[in-house]
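Hey,
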Amino acid sequence: MYVLYTILASLVSFFILKWLKKRRYCTDLKRLDGKTVLITGGSSGIGKETAIALAMRGARVVIASRDADRAGKAVREIKFTSRNLDVCHMELDLANLRSIRDFCKSFLQREKRLDILVNNAAMPSVLDWTDDGFSMCFGVNHLGHFLLTNTLLPRLKECAPSRVVTLTCSNYKYQKLDFQDLNYNLLPFFTYCRSKLANIYFTQELARMGEGKGVSAYAVHPGFVQSGWTCHFSFIFRMLAQVVMWMFFVPCEMGAQTVVYCAVSDAAAKHNGGYFVDCRPATLRPFARDSGVARKLWEASERLVQLV
């Protein structure tokens, strides 16, 4: 009898977990023929699944990644899965401001259009530093994408209506920004949370600045996804994390759905500057909706990446 109860409890737990992992899918079938999409970190995880989904809609897709070998393999897989041969890779290291500037110069020379920019690449909670002396999380997750977006903004305006979709995380709620120490790098988890909050403020200020210029911006929490973020940690941690992810996290294909939704949906366009979860707008904590903080972070970021 004990064995039977154990089996029943296990089955019930399994189906509860499956239910918890259910998420909404993007049902908008809009085509993107003639459009160009740039996706950072598009060689794996959510980025690659987003690339596949948008390539299937006919877009020209450029994936930006620092690992040329892995990106080359990803490009072949994206082409094969999407049946779209208009997919390519360009080298980009978001932990290096010079690399970002060089990338943007090459991109603007090669590509005549930029209709959708997906700021997907991110560093997990690691204690490390970028080549320019920023904490890795803040430097890559926020400052790198801040410089990239601002440098490519003229092309986005030329191709208006255009969109910028930036991936964030619901963990933003556990921290607030400290303008006396934006480069905080003491407790890895808190550093990550601050970088994800910065992504939200960045999206709001970008949306405000883009009003009337045809550039809209969206922040997306894709859910907790079975991606390759654990590669930065020890073998034992990776094994434990894989078990947890299998039980509670969603596949990358499902995690990409809200990104795709914000990239193509007319309904999403009504919520410029919004925060999205499960293909619909979600409510942010009050402190994450402070336009004054968003403006202050934008001005501080301009100084840090030497845009002013």
